[in-house]
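Box 3.1. Reading complex inputs
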Amino acid sequence: MSAFDLSRIGPGFADPVQAAQQVFRVGLDALAHPGRVLDIAANAPAPAGVSAAANALLLALLDQDTTLHVSAMLDDVTAQHLRFHTGCRLTQDIAEADFVLLATDDTWPDFSLLKQGSEYSPEQSATIVREVSSFAVGLPLLLKGAGIATTQSLQCPELDAAFVTSWQAMRGRFPRGIDLFLTCGSALAGLPRSTHINIQAEAACM
Amino acid sequence: MTHQDRQDWMRLLSTAPLDILEAWRGTQEQTKAPTHTWLRRPETGLVMVRGRVGGTGNRFNLGEMTLTRCTLRLAGGQHGVAYVQGRSARKAELAALADALLQDEAARTDVEQDLLQPLRARRAAEAARRAQAARNTKVDFLTIARGDE
């Protein structure tokens, strides 16, 4: 890791207390309504390659008791920026991270390599914050489960058939597993581990 | 500027009283008062102060103290960092501003003269006052030779 360089670090939230609470609330809503695309209004200048939503969410969620793994696809400045503002610990080892930040170009990691929590403490698991390129195109997915009255649809170019297969495999370990946030610009969607994900029937036939 | 120089002025600024800092700020003309952006606004917290017995022994926790820190960036690109004793956000802001200006070759002489000199004088006076107070209670032990030996 390169030496700490203040000149490459940007400012955090203009009003840290208010902004962090607002962002936390949006994060809660996103997990309470899986697949619903929400907007994060509170803003802080994000490092290059990181969306406003991912930056704001991590600034709000991280603290000195959490470990963060940042994708190798992202600039080292991203990790330094988040560490400077939140005091989080950085780790190269994805298996010991509480939060994992993945870039748009990343491939999905093997979910079973990440912290899964235990049967007694399922909350001690990893949360992935994943950059996606769009919420308008991609394989149409059908979500069911807690927080969804009937069904909810969701599509992202990064949510492909392989992702659905590994998500379904992870569902077998419930309540252990990982939670997922998808971010694009200032938009945010949550996929908690309780959500069932299937490929929409008409798409599967094609 | 060496690492040692910066350590020295950080030490002075960390305990600088607000009136000296404000007086220094007052001496700056409006044109010399640089604009800055916050990287980290002043925030107050606790830090554990640790010491070593005799300066060489094992580390131990001396106790917690209140500290306010902030980081700012001047328009010229210098970064000022402050870690000051107590809860005053204004103190931290002015100390960080001084730190940033001291790293600027052009501004250093003025800050050195208008701020660091008064702080050094105050520190020396305080040290002298303490030494005097200690001296006043000094007891010289002497033995008067007894005549029967």
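In summary: Residues 43 and 70 of chain A are 20 Å apart (CA to CA).
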